[in-house]
């Protein structure tokens, strides 16, 4: 696409891969914003920035975590709560598209550190909305989450399902984002699309995710804990599929239309982005163990039974996530389809190099 694009959370998992996709395609001028916090190993974020410097036509040495500019990519280190910085970026660049992927992630961490979620996910997102109002953009795309569905028993989850019973503060902040975006779209004609991501995984991912944390523990010879006695299902979605979905949505903003009262209607949509194929946690662990041995992360003959434990459900967790992606397929001709084993294999190949940094 040919546009000026702001991507917040550019050193994050999805944000970095989206930036790379846009830079490799060419045509877009991309500004990436991230505070590069230490919620998890900063070296992973720095590695993603090196990846982006190379994708922009530079070298790994150009990737200064404090900020750098290479080709059509500029990385700015900063926080969504810094209103002066955001105002300057919007005023100077006149963005066509804004993709807000910056957020404090993690369900369990939200139970222990709720204020971090209010600051980043609520105050930070409000600041983005305000800038989109004062400096009109063609499309605001933002990350929501499958966690908004809470403990819904109806599966698969559809965008029209009730989502007013969150089981974690993280989920509540993501539902709040959807309500805030809808209000700003109605009041100020900001075209906005929210994307409910389902358990995103892949190379260079977040260490707090199960596939990554399990791998770390197994490599160290520790026991992994499989929650709800293994009776959970997750709709694992490979990062490249997520990026493909985001890229297609970015280029197609909802149309601002007038209602019967003569006033603009909310140009706001929400889509699920998931693999539509939930996997049991036990099946997921079996696949992970298999590829870790086959890719040389763990030795042949590793005693997995001695390193796994079935435990009860944790607070904030849900028994199943399962995406109905028919709306995404209908409107954009795309549905995620990467097999779990293929995605885990890509992660294992990346992890072989990462483990030597630990």
Keywords:
two-stranded parallel sheet, single chain, Rossmann fold, 11 helices, alpha/beta, 358 residues, eight-stranded mixed sheet
Which sheet architecture does the biggest sheet show?
8 strands, mixed
* Lateral arrangement of strands in the main beta sheet: 3-4-2-1-5-6-7-12
Give the SSE order as H and E letters. EHEHEEHEHHEHEEHEEEHEEHEHH
Named at the architecture level, the CATH assignment of the domain at 103-201 and 236-276 and 321-337 is 3-Layer(aba) Sandwich
**Percent range for helical residues?**
25-40%
Low-confidence stretches: none
Question: Any overview of this molecule?
Answer:
This protein has 358 residues and is an alpha/beta fold. It has a domain at 103-201 and 236-276 and 321-337: NAD(P)-binding Rossmann-like Domain (Rossmann fold, 3-Layer(aba) Sandwich), CATH 3.40.50.720. 40% of the residues lie in helices and 16% in strands. It has helices at residues 13-25, 42-55, 83-93, 107-112, 114-134, 169-188, 210-219, 239-250, 281-294, 326-332, 340-354, and strands spanning 4-8, 29-34, 67-70, 73-77, 97-100, 139-145, 192-197, 200-201, 224-226, 233-234, 237-238, 268-273, 279-280, 308-310. The strands form four sheets. The protein has an eight-stranded mixed beta sheet, with helices on both faces. A two-stranded parallel sheet has the order 8-11. α1 links the parallel β1 and β2. α1 crosses α8 (239-250), α5 (114-134) runs parallel beside α6 (169-188) and α9 crosses α11. The longest helix has 21 residues, at 114-134. The two termini are 38 Å apart. The model has no long low-confidence stretch (mean pLDDT 93).
């Amino acid at each position: 696409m040919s546009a000026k694009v702001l991507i917040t959370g550019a050193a994050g998992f999805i944000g970095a891969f989206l930036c790379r996709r846009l830079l490799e395609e060419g045509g877009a001028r991309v500004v990436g914003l991230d505070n590069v916090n230490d919620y998890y190993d900063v070296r992973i974020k720095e590695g993603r920035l090196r990846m982006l410097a190379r994708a922009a036509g530079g070298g790994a040495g150009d990737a200064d975590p404090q900020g750098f500019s290479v080709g059509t990519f500029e990385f700015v280190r900063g926080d969504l709560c810094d209103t002066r910085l955001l105002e300057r970026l919007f005023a100077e660049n006149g963005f066509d598209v804004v993709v807000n992927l910056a957020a404090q992630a993690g369900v369990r961490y939200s139970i222990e550190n709720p204020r971090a979620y209010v600051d980043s996910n609520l105050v930070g997102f409000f600041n983005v909305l305000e800038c989109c109002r004062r400096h009109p953009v063609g499309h605001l795309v933002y990350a929501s989450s499958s966690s908004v569905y809470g403990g819904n028993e109806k599966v698969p989850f559809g965008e029209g399902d009730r989502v007013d019973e969150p089981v974690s503060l993280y989920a509540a902040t993501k539902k709040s984002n959807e309500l805030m975006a809808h209000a700003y779209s109605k009041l100020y004609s900001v075209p906005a699309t929210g994307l409910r991501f389902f358990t995103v995984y892949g190379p260079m991912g977040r260490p707090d995710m199960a596939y990554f944390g399990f791998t770390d523990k197994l490599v160290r010879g520790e026991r992994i804990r499989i929650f709800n006695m293994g009776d959970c299902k997750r709709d694992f979605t490979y990062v490249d599929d997520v990026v493909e979905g985001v890229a297609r949505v970015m280029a197609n903003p909802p149309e601002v239309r007038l209602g019967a009262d003569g006033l603009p209607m909310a140009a706001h949509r929400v889509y699920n982005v998931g693999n539509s194929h939930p996997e049991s946690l036990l099946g997921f662990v079996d696949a992970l163990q298999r590829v870790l041995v086959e890719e040389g992360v763990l030795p042949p003959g590793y005693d997995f039974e001695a390193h796994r434990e079935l435990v009860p459900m944790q607070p904030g967790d849900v028994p199943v996530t399962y995406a109905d992606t028919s709306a995404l397929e209908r409107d954009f001709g795309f549905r995620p389809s990467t097999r779990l084993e293929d995605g885990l294999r890509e992660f294992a190949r990346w992890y072989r190099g990462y483990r030597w940094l630990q």
